[in-house]
Amino acid sequence: MKNTIVLLVEDEPALAEIVSESLQHKGFTVVHAADAATAFKQYYAVKPHIIVLDVMLPDGDGFDMAVKIRSTDIETPILFLTSRSRPEDVVNGFEKGGNDYLKKPFSIAELIVRIQALLTSNRLLIKKETTLQQSIEIGKYSFYYPAGILSQAGINRNLTSREAEILQILVLNRNQMLDRKTLLMKLWGNDDYFSGRSLDVFISKLRKYLSADPSVVIINVRGKGYKLVSS
User: Fold this and answer.
1) CATH 3.20.20.70 correct for 5-123
2) pLDDT averaged over consecutive 10-residue blocks of the chain (231 residues)?
3) Residue 1's pLDDT is what?
4) Run of H or E residues at 222
5) Is residue 17 within 8 Å of residue 40, measured between CB atoms?
6) What are the distances in angstroms from CA 217 to CA 112, 133, 171?
7) Beta carbons of 210 and 171 less than 8 angstroms apart
8) Which residues are within 8 A (CB) of 76 and not within 5 positions of it... i.e. 6 or more apart?
9) Which terminus of the chain faces fewer neighbouring Cβ atoms within 10 Å, N or C?
């Protein structure tokens, strides 16, 4: 997997060294972080292709870290590493945004196979073949992602891919303020003037599309970002 960047978040030094060396031997580029704070910095700095994430970290919970990542990133695969074995822990991991779950102790061979499987295009968290049967309710609307269809009162509107991406991020963070710069970096890879104006245009369009339901509002938090408010 040449040129594939793996962000390994693991606080056990011996295990981290073994995993890092094994993955590097297979051609992966490994960026290691021993705690959540460092992991977030590395995540934004290197933009990894996959995250191998320990659940128990010295400064937080891997599940909480996954939730924060998923607030703006629904594509990068996350593989949890944990010594927890209860079924509810496994379920919780998937509910928090994980794609796979590997219990300690594990074999390096199995870890590599799981990483390779997650990196194939048909194993992403939200699959491109998602059908209309899978929807998110936004007030009176039904939003189908990634199909990009917004439905209300039997009328379907086909959104552009960028409109759908922005609405999906807003929905995943419903009733929470989304930082403008974070949105721009996620969607355009920069926060320059032209990208900012493009974002403003897309937000205006989405407001118009959602205007039939007064309970659904995209609020502009002045100087900070946006917030989708709905019941």
Assistant:
1) no
2) 88 96 95 96 95 94 90 85 75 76 88 86 41 74 88 89 87 89 82 82 93 94 89 65
3) 59
4) none
5) no
6) 44, 25, 11
7) no
8) 48, 49, 50, 51, 69
9) C
* Side chain identity, residue 57: L
Measured CA to CA, the distance from residue 133 to residue 121 in angstroms comes to 21
Can you name the residues that pair with 144 across neighbouring β-strands? 149
Contact yes or no for 203/166 (Cβ under 8 A) = yes
Round to whole Å and give the CA distance between 48 and 83. 24
Enter the tokens of residue 69: 């990542």
Let me know: does 94 contact 101? Beta carbons within 8 Å: yes
Distance of CA 86 to the CA centre of its chain: 25
Distances (CA, A) of 222 to 104, 141, 172, 196: 46, 26, 21, 14
Pair of tokens at residue 11: 């606080």
Per-residue pLDDT, 87 = 66
| DSSP string across 156-201 | EEEPPHHHHHHHHHHHHTTTS-EEHHHHHHHHTS---HHHHHHHHH
CA distance 93 to 96: 5
Task: Say which CATH architecture domain 136-229 belongs to.
Answer: Orthogonal Bundle (1.10)
Write down the domain spans for the chain: 5-123, 136-229
Q: Residue 22: phi, psi to the nearest 5?
A: -65, -45
Structure tokens at 42: 């590395």
